[in-house]
Structure formats: structure tokens, C-alpha cells
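quick one
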Amino acid sequence: MDFDHPPADPIAQARLWFKEAEGTNLPNPNAMTLATIDADGRPSARIVLLRGFDERGAVFFSNRESRKGGGLAAHPRAALLFHWDPLDRQIRIEGAVSHTGDEESDAYFAGRPRESRINAWASSQSRPVASRAALEEMQRSMAARFEGVEVPRPPHWGGYRVALERIEFWHGDPYRLHDRVVYTPQGSGTWSVQRLCP
Ligand SMILES: Cc1cc2nc3c(=O)[nH]c(=O)nc-3n(C[C@H](O)[C@H](O)[C@H](O)COP(=O)(O)O)c2cc1C
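structure w/ flavin mononucleotide:
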């Protein structure tokens, strides 16, 4: 990426970096940190996997009754962070968060392995559980409930889309004079772009 003459379209640029991250030996090149705040304004962060990316935003899937789900219900805004150490790159995305539509959530859920679909029912994500045995018992009971039938998407499970209100590209310099550019949307698919001091 030429940081002095950055491309006009950050979406195409991000896709290029996602693709180059896939070419590394990282086991989860689509892993990103998702930062949210809860109802009291307290921040929390965790890793999720990027499952979709286009002009509408960056998509991940989760349990909407989880801790992150509660935070996003109270404050539907998030920050996403990708860091690819072997490439000395990071991308930061910030924006408003919305639910993906039922069809999109259903389509993604249907493509998951049957075991993962059962486990989406079995796990009350972020809630206390007494032991591994208790977790496995919930899994067995859900496996029995859905024996011989398709496992539908749980109503509390689905996608989130983070709008692209700010996208920053960062490339490391060995002596800390890193390159950074930040894009903000200007409407009708155009972007303003600004180089930043490291
Ligand atoms: C590599 C990796 C990928 C993960 N992908 C997801 C994901 O796509 N969705 C998800 O809900 N949790 C994912 N997790 C688990 C989350 O980091 C987190 O533990 C979980 O979502 C509960 O977070 P919460 O209690 O803040 O809601 C992943 C964890 C790791 C380490």
C-alpha cells in the first residue's frame, strides 16, 4: 500500500489485506478484537471471527444474550481490530452496529457443522456454569432434543454488522515511524482519506 497515495476505496484495500493475511500461516487470519461498552459505559473486548465484509460493514456472528450482546443492545457501537503480526499490519474499524437480517443469520447458521449448531443451543454464552460435566450434559440434552431433525437457528443467535464509519490502515516501521491512513465515508461511496502521525 502506498500511504502517500492511498487508494480511493478502503474496502478493496481491506479485502487485499484480508487476502494477504490468509496467505500467512496464521490459524485464524480473520480473527479480530471486538470492543464494546456495557450499559454503564464500561469497555470490554474479545476475539470474534470476521464472516462478511462489504460496503454495508463487517459481520460477525454470536449469541445475542451474551455479555457482548447485552452491551451492544445498550450501546450499538463497536470497534474492531485486526492485527497480523507476520505482516506488521493492523486495521481498525469503528461504527454503529445493527443485527443482520434473519435470512442472513439463517444462511450462515445452516452452513455450520451440526455439532456447532447443537452447541449454539446448549451454551448460554457468558452465563455461569458449574462444571465441564454440566456443560456436556446440556449438550447431550440438546443433541437428544434435535435427534433426527434439522437444528434450527436459536432465536438468540445471529449476526451483527459494524458499519464502516472509520477505517484505519497501519503498517509498522522498525524504528516506529509507522504509516497510518484513516478513511471516513463522505456519502455515495466516496471517502475522505487522511494520513496520520504514528
Ligand atoms: C479465535 C477465536 C474466535 C472466536 N470467534 C468467536 C465468534 O465468531 N463469535 C463469538 O461469539 N465468539 C467467538 N469467540 C469467543 C469470544 O472471544 C468470547 O469468549 C465469547 O464470544 C463470549 O464473549 P462475551 O462474554 O464478551 O460475550 C472466539 C474466540 C477465539 C479465541
